[in-house]
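hey can u check if this looks right to u? its 242 residues, i copy pasted from the old doc so theres a chance i mangled smth
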Amino acid sequence: LSESRIENLIKPGSLIGLKPNLVVSKPSSSGATTSPLIAGAVIEYLKDKGFDNFLILEGSWVGDSTKRAFRTCGYEDISKKYNVPLFDTKDDSFTVKTSGGIKMEICDRLFDVDFLINMPVIKGHCQTLVTGALKNMKGCITDREKRHFHSLGLHDPIAHLNKIRCADFVIADGLCGDLDFEEGGNPVQMNRIVCGTDSVLTDAYIASIMGYRPEDVEYITVAAEIGVGSCSLDDADIIELN
């Protein structure tokens, strides 16, 4: 975080939203969900830099309870320790937004956030090969819309969701992820964290360290084509620490 100088990107007084991946009610050791240690570290770091207005927002998959995930995944403890509210997007009102001819129901609280930090898990996915920052934004749509996204094949609507509202910063949890399945169960200890200001480029890099080309993951290339970000690793400024 110090090397990224994230504090220089955030305006004083901003409401900072943290969007983890809590797709199911399983601890991060399963390889499915974002480690609460990362969320706590981000909050501590930014509090030390003078920021004190935070919100953790998420909506689990249709078949699971976000509130149970907050508890199981350690986020209730984070909320109490740092006095940061938890917001279940399943309880939110929504606004219909359109991009690329695709109408989608997006939770209203997302648009109250001034600076959005996306905290996906570096892991595989049974339909899209890889799930990262771009796909993690699905937690900010209604359950009905999540089903709709799947009926559309995921790739195009994921890209266009990020065209409407993309994260301002990505901190991808590669400490422990399941490289095959988004719901965990076969975790791999990787001890990596990947940060970036471009969600498309960050996902392209995540795909590359998992053994894929960016063009192997359709929503990455679609997002690049519609101007969400760049998927060109050759032109990227990549800084490796340690």
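The two ends are 14 Å apart (CA to CA).
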